[in-house]
Amino acid sequence: MRGRGTGSEHDVLERIRRAFGGQRLRTKRDGLRSEAGSRFLSLEMGDDAALVSATPGYEIVLTCDWFLEGTHFLRDKHPADAAGWKCLARAVSDIAAMGAAPRCFLLSLALPRELAAAWLDDFLVGLRRAAGRFGCSLAGGDTTERREVLINVTVVGEVRRGRDLRRSGARPGDLIYVSGRLGEAELGLRLLRERKRGLSPRDSRLRKQLYPKPRLELGRWLSEKRVPSAMMDLSDGLSTDLCRLCEASGVGAVIESDLLPSVGVTRLERNRGVDPLRLALHGGDDYELLFTVPKSKAARLPRALCGVAITRTGEVTQTREVIVSDDNGRSRVLEPRGWDPFRKSK
Amino acid sequence: MRGRGTGSEHDVLERIRRAFGGQRLRTKRDGLRSEAGSRFLSLEMGDDAALVSATPGYEIVLTCDWFLEGTHFLRDKHPADAAGWKCLARAVSDIAAMGAAPRCFLLSLALPRELAAAWLDDFLVGLRRAAGRFGCSLAGGDTTERREVLINVTVVGEVRRGRDLRRSGARPGDLIYVSGRLGEAELGLRLLRERKRGLSPRDSRLRKQLYPKPRLELGRWLSEKRVPSAMMDLSDGLSTDLCRLCEASGVGAVIESDLLPSVGVTRLERNRGVDPLRLALHGGDDYELLFTVPKSKAARLPRALCGVAITRTGEVTQTREVIVSDDNGRSRVLEPRGWDPFRKSK
């Protein structure tokens, strides 16, 4: 963590250290070890850089993710602890998508002076909870002052050599699977925006928008069993992310819309035009896994793992197009209409 | 690099890929290797995360750094290619400060739509030049749209196990050294702000502000020879950074102001109140190395290494105070008045 020692930046760093104090991050030389990733971290925040020891036979996996006020979260809608949880969860989801396990993370945090006390403490409560849940220690970072809350999280993970899962391995004939339900986070965002009366941050319909759970156990199981031919996480919506997987693999796909595990909506919402299929196809922020499996391996897949449903939703094709076929037997090209920051504001 | 494949975000990623195309980043499986860090990178941008193989006997060094428009650079003063160079150089400086060698980096870039063409291309020219110079390959990142240019760079380096240099090892009696000249970057910033007529971005007086050179060779030499007891880089100004080193080591220091290698100023500037000592003590952005050496090892230090001067400027003391003594024999406590983002705007 840069900027140790003096001035008011010091206060921000002290709050971060206090929040993560229970993790007892120390240098190896001090003889203490962190709760999570103990073999991994040898130098905690406080120096110019963090030191990490790789496990023999494993490869290091690296990812970074923006989490910006107004772009990726709404400060007046997302509670501070949810921002803390989610900024780490979405970066960890990229680690899950490689079949890897997270080890430690760097936090870059810019925030207004007036948020550097109560808001920051709540943010750190959520961040610490996520770090504990995902087994991912705070290793360092950078802090500065800014008019808006800007966050960037780098996560370091590990995967056994040769067991990483990539986007590029899908082959025609492979079956397409997704975990969980799709569109839940997008519906949660709509409910948040509408400020539904009596909707608590703990409401189950907001849970996936506020406190998403990266599919770490499922990702690791799939990697260890070598079942998928390709995998990625669903962060920007199925229509956008499936197109990316197909492009990386040089293939196409057919999705059967009646197989899609779409978010449940109330009759009232349906009457008001909320379409579960649209949410499932284009809604972002779900952090479920999308993966393809050769037919010969499909029988090895359970219907659910650690309580997360695994659903077949289509098949990989040779033609470089992504098609969605509906329950009346009609087909149409699926345009990528998920989240693209340079096309629209969310 | 997240967000591959579709929409207009695709164009931004394509520009980045084109700019770094000469590095021929490919997966190991494809049989091609990157120019720099070839043993190191096994999966380039284009998947959810980057894969990195650690060298046996080495530890991974990790650092991340904000580089924000208006806070760390001025878009109307810093040319785009200087922004590209500097955002990487300052993060690499943290790696140099550990005695490590940089290997690869992740680029998180948020920028306004109207900068996503010419400005971005110029930015990438500077970034690529820096990446080549520092031997540091682009491994991945994240892009998004934003009203202002926001950059976060994570650098991954390596250091032979047990050879890393930390802030915490200074002992009373050790001598204090700095590399290069101090205050040059701060003076360069003043000249930039004043828009001096006829001042080209290539002017030598702006060089350190626009195109700083992290002291990689010196850092590695010091680490290999095991000369310093503690080391860090000077990013926020000597007064602030020396206080940090002293705090981490539990010691104090005396700096002799007449020994300080201060920036040269013209008579005109001096008459206008520009004080080289103040610039050397409190000016930020120099990215020189600050290190302490036990007296028994001081004879091993050359006066310069790879063209960079090495200057003794003081001594570590037991009293937990940082003192500056001037050439008239007067002493005063040196307050940390360097760069603190939560105290002032730069």
Explain what the structure shows:
The structure is a homodimer of 346-residue chains. Chain A has helices at residues 9-19, 80-96, 118-134, 184-193, 207-210, 216-225, 238-249, 267-271, 276-282; strands at residues 41-43, 50-52, 58-68, 101-111, 137-145, 150-160, 175-179, 230-234, 252-256, 288-293, 304-305, 308-317, 322-325, 331-333. Chain A has 346 residues and is an alpha+beta fold. In chain A, the strands form 3 sheets. In chain A, strands 7, 8, 9, 10, 11, 12, 13 and 14 form an 8-stranded mixed sheet that branches. In chain A, strands 3-6-4-5 form a 4-stranded mixed sheet. The radius of gyration of chain A is 21 Å and the shape is globular. Residues 2-7 and 23-39 of chain A have low confidence and may be disordered. At the A-B interface, helix 1, strand 2, strand 3, strand 4 and strand 5 of A face helix 1, strand 2, strand 3, helix 2 and strand 4 of B. Strand 2 (50-52) of chain A pairs antiparallel with strand 3 of chain B.
